[in-house]
Specification:
Helices cover 46% and strands 11% of the residues. The protein has helices spanning 3-10, 23-31, 42-47, 52-57, 60-74, 101-106, 109-126, 155-171, 202-206, 210-218, 243-251, 267-270, 275-285, 300-313, 318-336; strands at residues 12-16, 35-38, 78-81, 130-131, 175-181, 197-198, 222-225, 229-230, 237-238, 258-260, 290-292. Helix 2 (23-31) links the parallel strand 1 and strand 2 (35-38). The strands form two sheets. It has an eight-stranded parallel sheet with strand order 10-7-5-4-3-2-1-11. A three-stranded mixed sheet has the order 6-8-9, with no helix packed on it. The chain starts with a helix and ends with a helix. It has a single domain, classed as Glycoside hydrolase, family 3, N-terminal domain (TIM Barrel). It is an alpha/beta fold. Helix 7 (109-126) packs across helix 8 (155-171).
Length: 338
């Protein structure tokens, strides 16, 4: 396998719905994959609760066995899961519960930080080292996607809570991910299945950025770009493939960590493109790690081939692929050594 083939796999971030070391997972790790996301079913995502059967079957020992086996095959890895105060807590069966949203909003920030530390400590014991949390979006109106899934409708309060979350999990040796930049104050359509557009101007969006800035300043390791199309971009496009918005995250917020996309097959991102085309677009935009949904997992090899082909024909600069792969490797190594 060539260096580019290995690097192409290393920038992909496939979702696993179960603790199953399938042939697809083995091939991915053997070929150079460096990241796995432990996801949940659509029903679990919608309810914010893991199913009774999952809670019964997924023991701490199973988590430890799977994550240890993955590292034995792939070396230092990013092993990630959601742990949101107002949404999904993927490891709720083996880690303490996060505070309920109304309680979290009333807590002394030091106590909230300690609660997040305790959750992250248990998560790390299970072998997971990156949380795809906290959500830093603040709503400014109707939002069919994020309603009930954010920390607070007050930007200052949300910023304080984001900072406490990031500081708590960092103290436990676990990474954190701010999502979903540049914020989605109003969203009238679900971006996963429909064309969803954020119509606010960049100046209007900046008014919602204090939670993202607080998380960056507190040491968040990654930022997930959003799925919706932003009318403020020229041309309008989804954040996960927008050089303009990723550039603003880097320049205006001073973020130097790992930039990841949300699921590339979300309708508002992929449009009429193939998964390979949208993966190349995301890398060209400056994303480092590309989230591949469980549904798209069988296409991982094809996506990697499209990335390699794009480098070969000059559609993707060699330096951009190398930089993304290095960013993934650096975070995997650091999180594995904390």
């Amino acid at each position: 396998m060539s260096a580019n083939e290995s690097n192409a796999l290393s920038v992909l971030f496939p979702v696993l719905l179960d603790l199953d070391m399938s042939d697809d997972v083995r091939r991915f790790l053997d070929g150079g994959g460096r990241s796995l996301l432990f996801g949940e079913t659509a029903q679990e995502y919608g309810s914010g609760k893991m199913s009774a059967s999952r809670l019964q079957s997924e023991t701490l020992e199973q988590w430890q066995r799977f994550t240890a086996a993955a590292r034995q095959m792939g070396g230092p890895l990013i092993l990630a899961a959601d742990a949101d105060i107002s949404a999904v807590h993927r490891l709720q069966g083996v880690a303490p519960a996060l505070p309920e949203p109304h309680l979290a909003r009333s807590m002394v920030l030091a106590d909230l930080e300690q609660a997040c530390f305790q959750v992250a400590t248990a998560v790390r014991d299970a072998g997971v080292n990156l949380l795809l949390s906290p959500t830093a979006d603040v709503l400014g109106g109707t939002n069919v996607w994020l309603q009930g899934r954010t920390l607070s409708d007050d930007a200052d309060q949300a910023a304080n809570m984001v900072e406490a979350y990031v500081r708590g999990v960092r103290r436990a040796g676990v990474g954190s991910t701010l999502k979903h930049f540049p914020g989605h104050p109003v969203l009238l359509h679900p971006p996963a299945t429909e064309v969803a557009v954020v119509t606010e101007s960049l100046d209007q969006l900046r008014a919602y950025w204090s939670p993202f800035q607080a998380g960056v300043d507190a040491g968040a390791d990654a930022v997930m770009m959003g799925p919706a199309i932003f009318a403020a971009c020229e041309p309008a496009m989804a954040a996960s493939i927008s050089p303009q918005l990723i550039g603003l995250l880097r320049r205006e917020l001073g973020f130097k960590g790992l930039v990841m996309t949300i699921d590339l097959d979300h309708r508002s991102i992929i449009g009429s493109l193939s998964l390979g085309d949208v993966a190349v677009a995301a890398l060209n935009a400056g994303a480092d790690l590309l989230l591949i949904s469980a549904k798209a997992m069988p296409e991982v090899a094809q996506i990697a081939r499209a990335i390699v082909a794009a480098v070969a024909c000059g559609a993707l600069p060699q330096e951009r692929l190398d930089t993304a792969a290095l960013a993934v490797s650096a975070l995997a190594n650091r999180l594995s050594n904390t």
